Amino acid sequence: MSVQVVKTNPILIGLTGGIGSGKTTASNYFRYLGIPVIDCDLIVKRLWKENQMMVKQIEFSFGFSISSDEDRKKLAKIIFSDSKKREALNQIVHPFVFLEVEKEKEFYRDRQFIVIDMPLLIEVGYKKLVDYVVVVYVNPLTQKTRLMERDNLSLEEVTKRIQAQMPLDDKKAFADVVLENETTIGDLHHQIDSFLRGLRDEK
Ligand code: ATP
User: At what angle do helices 155-163 and 140-151 cross, to 10 degrees?
Assistant: First the structure.
């Protein structure tokens, strides 16, 4: 008797959005549903601690040693106010992040879905490497209000942070699926349920 082995690849869901638009809130729900989430913010944090090769490259490129919180604040200030420097940092960090994403993907290869939570997915061209681009969208007023509350920042500070990013409306244009996060978290969950139902029905 022969056994037929059918190998399927997981469906890759690229989750993205703007600062404070609700990516973490959405990814927490995917996790709650038992779907693995690869968290790129977490990967970057881990790389800073564990990947000396990456840190050395950054130090070389920026010309100072980065080991204390003060050094990191100095770097954040530089890249926050200078888009070319921000790009230079991204050019160093992203290849390391992509490698880690590949490793984690391998770990979940037998799963039906994998969510890749990548804030800069569109900017770095990762769109072509996922099956669905899901953008968590809020209008600018809601985004500012939630950010001010979460991070205890002034309107001026949150406006600056939002303006340093690609406009959320532009990201929306790249989306296969838009999760409108304007009302309740429950409503966001319903939209995710409905998206996953659609994917399961397609299979
Ligand atoms: P960042 O880019 O800064 O990591 P994010 O996109 O992960 O942010 P979240 O942290 O999920 O965004 O959400 C931002 C804030 O808005 C949080 O305090 C969260 O609890 C709140 N929030 C998210 N969605 C809703 C909602 N539908 N209703 C009310 N509050 C919400």
Answer: 120
Question: CA–CA separation, 9 vs 29, rounded Å?
Answer: 22
Q: In terms of pTM, does the model score above 0.70? A: yes
Q: Which amino acid is at 73?
A: K
* Domains of the chain, CATH where assigned: 11-202 (3.40.50.300)
CA of 178 to the centre of ligand 1 (A): 16
Residue 14 Cβ inside 6 Å of ligand 1? The answer reads no
Q: Decide: helix, strand or coil at residue 108.
A: coil
Specify the DSSP class assigned to residue 9: P
- For residue 137 and ligand 1, the question of a CB distance below 6 A is answered with no
Whether 181 lines ligand 1, by a CB cut-off of 6 Å, is yes
Per-residue pLDDT of the chain (203 residues; tens, 9 = 90+): 666 655 578 999 999 999 999 999 999 999 999 999 999 999 999 999 999 999 999 999 999 999 998 999 899 889 878 889 989 999 999 999 999 999 999 999 999 999 999 999 999 999 999 999 999 999 999 999 999 999 999 999 999 889 888 999 999 999 999 999 999 999 999 999 999 999 988 76
